[in-house]
Amino acid sequence: MTRSDTTDAKTRLLDAAEHLFTEHGFAATSLRKITTEAGVPLAMVSYHFGSKKGLMEAVYARALGQRDTSRVGYLDRLEAQAGGAPVPVDVLVEAFISSALRLTRKGTISGAVFKQMIGRAFYEPEAGVEDFFPTEYAEAVERYKCAFMRALPALSEADVVWRMYFFVGMVAYAMAGKDVMRMTEIYALEEAGCPEAMLRRLMPFIVAGFNAPSADVSPAAGALAVALGT
C-alpha cells in the first residue's frame, strides 16, 4: 500500500467513523463496522489511530478544526487584546457561545450531524466510552476557568467551576436539541429549532449567573432553608 493509499484510507476511516458514531452511537459502532464501510483493513485503525478511542478523538478533532479557530485559539486572541487585563465576563461568555455556534457551521461536518454527535457524546454515556474526554475540550475548560477566575476575583475556584458546569451543560443541551422537558413544544416556541437564536437568548442569563454573589451552601444555611420552608 502506497503513502497516498494510506492517507486515503485514513480519510475514509474518519468519514465512516463520523457517520456511524453519529448514526448509531459510540458503543454500538464496532471497528469492524467502520472498516467495512471505509473499505479498508482492520489493521488500518491501529496504524493511523492506535485504538477506537484514538479514532474517536480524531473525529472530534477534525470537527473542531485548527487551534487558531478553536475555543482555545479564540481565547488566546481575546487575552492578547486585553493586554494583561482580565477579559470581561460577558466577552468570555460570548466567545464560548460563538465558538459553539461556529462548530454547527463547519464545512467538514454539517450542523445537524455535529449536534447529534454532541448529544450522543455528552447525553448518552455508553459502555466503553466513559473515559472519552477530548483533549481540546479539557484544555478549553481549564483555560476558560482561569479566565473567569481572573474576571471574578471575589468568587472561589469552586464557585467558578460550578458556574462553568451549569454554563457548559446548558450550551450542550441547547446545541444537542434534546428538549426532554418538552417546554418548547408546549409553548410552541418558534426559535426552538435554531441553536443560534437559543444561545443568544441564553447569553444574558449566563452572564447574570456568573456575576451573581457567591451562594451560601453551608449545612447551617441548608437547615435554615428547610426550617423556613424555602
Entry keywords:
230 residues; mainly alpha; Arc Repressor Mutant, subunit A; 2 domains; 12 helices; 69% helix; 0% strand; globular; HTH_TetR; transcription cis-regulatory region binding; Homeodomain-like_sf
Overview of the structural elements:
- The protein has 230 residues and is an all-alpha fold.
- It has 2 domains: 1-63, Arc Repressor Mutant, subunit A, CATH 1.10.10.60; 65-228, Tetracycline Repressor, domain 2, CATH 1.10.357.
- The protein has 12 helices and no strands.
- It has helices spanning 3-24, 31-38, 43-49, 52-64, 71-82, 89-103, 111-123, 135-151, 157-176, 183-186, 195-211, 219-228.
- The relative contact order is 0.10.
- InterPro entries: Homeodomain-like_sf, HTH-type_TetR-like_transc_reg, HTH_TetR, PsrA_TetR_C, Tet_transcr_reg_TetR-rel_C_sf.
- GO terms for molecular function: DNA-binding transcription factor activity; transcription cis-regulatory region binding.
- Residues 30-49 bind DNA.
